[in-house]
Amino acid sequence: MVPVLFGVTIITFIISHLVPGDPARLVAGPHAPLEVVLAVRTKMGLDKPLYEQFFIYLNDLLHGDLGTSITTRRAVLADLMRFFPATFELTLSAMVLSIVVGIPLGVASATRQNTLPDHLSRIFALAGVATPVFWSGLMVLLVFYYDLGVLPGPGRIDIGIVSPPQITGLYVVDSILTGNLAALGSSLGHLILPTVVLAFSTLGTIVRMVRSSMLEVLREDYVVMAKAKGLPERDVVYKHALKNALTATITLVGLIFGALLSGAVLVEAIFSWPGVGRYAVNAIEYVDFAAVMGYTLIVTLIYITVNLGVDVFYALLDPRVRLE
Amino acid sequence: MKGDKHTPGHSRSRMEQWRKEIRPIASEIRYSLYLIRMHPLALAGMAIILGLTAVAILAQWVTPYDPLSVALSEKLLPPSLEHIFGTDDLGRDIFSRVIAGSRISLRVAITVVAFAFTLGTTLGVIAGFYGGATDEVIMRTTDTFLSIPSLVLALVIAAALGPSLYNLMLSICVTWWPWYTRLVRGETLSVREKQYTESARMVGVSDFRLLFRHILPNCLAPVIVNASMDMGFVILTAAGLSFIGLGAQPPMPEWGAMLSLGRGYLREAWWVATFPGLAILVTVLGFNLLGDGLRDILDPRLRR
């Protein structure tokens, strides 16, 4: 994990040097006199050789210093910590939804291979993968919020309702902890559309994986044996086959989490969801580079950690896998 | 002795050998065509892609209006017989713009996939074949790139380079190749141990030839499936980045950028955002169906 992280910092360092124009000029502002620009340049260490700049950059990172955002005028790390819970709430609920819907669909597909339900669930899954979230997001907003008015639209909570005090930062959890029913209802309602849109995009991957590993497992001898013993079909499928098919599916969770984090950038932009994705998109608009780089690093760190966790969990589940 | 040296008379026998070689390939192709016919979904995917390609090539002749011509008197007209997808805020015909957009999307997809395919496959086959330090260096680099979610990496590179279609393609290229490296390396590791590789090596075939004539062709089936699906995903990614303003700039008729424009008129003119989005959906679906079908067709375990 450490060499990969080191590699990531090299990549982000190179990217931050791709920015056309003078970063010192960008920080000092377009009308600053030359002396100020030069002073900023020295202060930022831009007059030092590249390798030295890299070590300064690395040192800052290790001290949690991701720079200062030029739009919010706060430390980037503080900004990201403030906005991250919203992203986490959204990606987590999308993950749960796509797993809860995806696994039964995959199982149904595998047990009824090449029948109508199988074709339907595969087409549904493919459509999910192929639908641009920034389009489906707009469409559900148009239909369920603007036209029908049955579901709440942009934002995390209704404007009239005070958001719950920050404990975990997840509005749903915080409103349960404080027993605030109004906030709970409102924040749950606001979660529905973005969650469904985001989950739909990763559902296909889960259905496909569950289907193919179920098909493999269903051909195994022990499944035939279980059937021969006269166990009910349900038990064979859900108790014997699914358990073993799922271990392979777990490796996907890390990948899906990455896709959800990526998709969240667009979904947050559409639903005015105050998460790190929208923060990054705003930062891009204002050429706030420290914020964009900080966002990239944090998202990558989370992604790597989740994948590491998945690997460890997988090794625990499957005794044949040994961690090196 | 180095292989590959031609002696007189050798080339004629090679010609005959080639004929002999081609016979099973021809029957293989015939069988593949039969398999495609048996997969209605793959066939549908292929039809979509062929249609899209035809439209993209013939764009200049099949667009009823100039996709860039502004007619303020006809702005935000709902779909009708004259403008079947309606018009946008500048009175431009959305149907014509969607057709013109297919060109841009296909161009982006072909460029990125061709680049990723070439670079990724070459690095993957080299890493798998030589192993050791070469493998270590290539794969650690690959892992590093893969550890950043691809849309995020493309986003930050495109943001650093500044918004333009060219920079967008560049940024997606940078994020896309590692998948091919990882895939091809895995395939190479298994092909390397096969008997025919061993035989070729014993005959004295050069490393280069061994890599690109014997090993690589036998690794390609899953890569082709991947490439087909990737065409769709690249289009999706490019449109997403354009949607947040990082790709094609107005007035270019790019699907993502058109959608982004339509977002501002969502309530009074639903058609501005709806049709470019549908175009993306159908295209990506087409490539996915095709890839799914190709997987079944190219998988030797499913073939017989």
Known CATH architecture of the largest domain in chain A: Orthogonal Bundle
**Overall form of chain B:** globular
Structural class of chain B: mainly alpha
Give the termini separation of chain B: 39 Å
Number of helices of chain B: 12
What is the percent of helical residues of chain A? over 70%
Give the SSE layout.
The complex is a heterodimer of chains A (324) and B (304).
Chain A: H1 2-16, H2 23-28, H3 34-43, H4 50-62, H5 76-111, H6 116-130, H7 133-147, H8 171-177, H9 181-218, H10 221-228, H11 233-270, H12 276-285, H13 289-317
Chain B: H1 10-38, H2 40-57, H3 59-62, H4 94-130, H5 132-146, H6 150-161, H7 165-192, H8 195-203, H9 207-243, H10 255-263, H11 270-298, H12 300-303
Helix pairs in contact in B: 2-4, 2-11, 4-5, 4-7, 4-9, 4-11, 5-7, 6-7, 7-9, 8-9, 9-10, 9-11, 10-11
Describe the structure.
The complex is a heterodimer of chains A (324) and B (304). Chain A has helices at residues 2-16, 23-28, 34-43, 50-62, 76-111, 116-130, 133-147, 171-177, 181-218, 221-228, 233-270, 276-285, 289-317. With 324 residues, chain A is mostly helical. Chain A folds into 2 domains: 2-62, no CATH class; 79-159 and 191-317, MetI-like fold (Orthogonal Bundle), CATH 1.10.3720. The two termini of chain A are 13 Å apart. The mean pLDDT of chain A is 87. With 304 residues, chain B is an all-alpha fold. Chain B is built from 12 helices and no strands. The longest helix of chain B has 37 residues, at 94-130.
List keywords for this structure.
heterodimer; A: 324 residues; mainly alpha; MetI-like fold; 2 domains; 13 helices; B: 304 residues; 12 helices; globular; disordered N terminus
